[in-house]
User: Fold Putative restriction endonuclease domain-containing protein from Streptomyces fodineus.
Amino acid sequence: MSAEPIMEPVMTQDPIDLLNAIEEASPVPIRPEYVEGTIIVPPYPDEDHNDGIGELYIQFRSAGFPLAGFGSAFRAADKNGGTVASLAPDFYVRRRKASDLDAAYRGANGGRYPMDMLDLVGEVTSTNHKTDTGPKFRAYAAAGVPIYVLINRHSKTAHCYTDPVLPGDDPTEAYYATDTKVTLGDPLPLPAPYPTLDTAPFLDD
Assistant:
């Protein structure tokens, strides 16, 4: 997501309840997130951020991936059903259309789908690049999302992370074993059957 987030540590209470309360209390539409025990409320992204995401979305759709999307939030749970993460990726490709079971899950979790619906997830950094390269990187790996695409405007690099690894039960230890990295502006190859992404839309004019 874009811009500097507001972060508050979460000690007690179900995180989904807290996220819903923050959304309801906000005078403007927001989508707070929860990761590694912290609630993140990102401010509105800038136009370059949104324009670039739109370009990537078009690339996926043009390559024949109708389940590419943006705007939805997804929840990851531990083995006891507790919320581990609730994230709203900048873009994604789903494994499947939402089933009746997925819709029921969404209704029970404040509008958040199960994260196992995701085959590919993507983030575009702004001033919050440490969130996308740290907690979100680990959260997506812990949830077993096969591919994490990161457009890092801070380092001017683009990454395709694959092969998620969760060494034990601690999601903060998760990581992606493989990093395909290019300079921002160069083509970013993705695993088959996905297309190679044009990252030039993220270059400064």
About this structure: The mean pLDDT is 91. The longest strand covers residues 157-165. The domain at 46-202 is CATH 3.90.1570.10 (tt1808, chain A). The CA atoms of residues 174 and 197 lie 26 Å apart.
